[in-house]
Amino acid sequence: MVVGLACKKVIQVNLHEASSRVVIEGEITDIPGIYQVKISRTVPYSDDNIFPPVQGAIVQVTDSNNGILYPFVETYPGLYTCKFTGVIRHTYQLTVNADSQLYTASSTMPAGVRLDSVTFAVNTNLNGKKEINAVVNFQDPPVPGNYYQFIEYLNGRQIPDIFVFENRLSKGRYIEQALYNDSSYLQKGDTLEMKMYCVDKNIYNYFFSLAQIIGNNGGFQSASPANPNTNLTGGALGYFSAHTVSEEKLLVY
Predict the structure, then answer these.
(1) Which stretches of the chain are assigned E, i.e. beta strand?
(2) Which of 6, 52, 221, 226 could cross-link 183 (Cys pair, CB 3.0–4.6 Å)?
(3) Do the domain assignments include residue 227?
(4) What is the H or E stretch that residue 189 is in?
């Protein structure tokens, strides 16, 4: 199943709720680099659309397979970073202590699947206009429980659409899946960077539910009756994901 709905990757809550909620967004990958955990707070609908950072938190990630602890340092208000490399099939435990409240999350990095290629297809949209869509091509492993997320960058800027895929009905098949954009349209000569993440089931459920909320409520201008299915405990919104990355950069043709 592929979900492709236009939305920005901003955590959405009931805009009329009075109490502020902590929002945590963190990712670890199999690519060496500096990983980030962003912590902020929600604001009421009547306030400006500025989410205040949560400063002074204690943030750490523990590799449950070997016990190694990675402390994150606040390098910018609300932004906590640490440099290391995630390992496939390892489970990572995030703990955040912010304002005397403990938040935790766990994510297991799946085995990676290689993005073979990105091609393009010309389709006619509902308005009768021709549009170019990227097509991702890859071999799905012949086992159940594979979950994917696709991120597109068009001319250096991320396309704010959600694309998630699970192989419940297609395990073991060669996948050729078009990604239909609602917010940005490809033109010949554009530079496209496609990233394919292999994510765990909790992260798939988070983005799938986020896409459903946005699709059922007319976008982020509407108050949501529910929040996405987070893997965080302690009442926080957001997600913590350990995933692999396969990517390709090319010109649209």
Answers:
(1) 2-6, 22-29, 33-41, 58-63, 69-76, 79-84, 91-98, 101-108, 117-124, 130-139, 147-154, 157-158, 161-166, 174-179, 191-199, 237-251
(2) 6
(3) yes
(4) none
The range of the structural domain enclosing residue 240 comes to 13-110+222-245
Tokens 């949560």 found at? 54
Ramachandran sector of residue 64 (left: φ over 0; alpha: ψ -120 to 50; beta: rest) = alpha
**Rounded-to-integer distance, Cα 50 and Cα 62, Å:** 31
Q: pLDDT tens digits, the chain, 253 residues: what are they?
A: 555 433 334 444 444 455 789 999 999 999 999 999 999 998 775 556 678 999 999 999 999 999 999 999 999 999 999 999 999 999 999 999 999 999 999 999 999 999 999 999 998 877 788 889 999 999 999 988 899 999 999 999 999 899 999 988 888 899 999 998 876 789 999 999 999 999 999 999 999 999 888 764 433 333 344 788 999 999 999 999 999 999 999 999 9
Examine residue 48 and state whether it is found in any structural domain, yes or no: yes
Total domains in the fold of the chain: 1
Q: Is residue 138 part of a domain?
A: no
What's the CA gap between 2 and 74, in Å, rounded? 36
pTM attached to this predicted model: 0.86
What tokens does 80 get?
Answer: 């906590």
Is residue 176 included in any domain, yes or no?
A: no
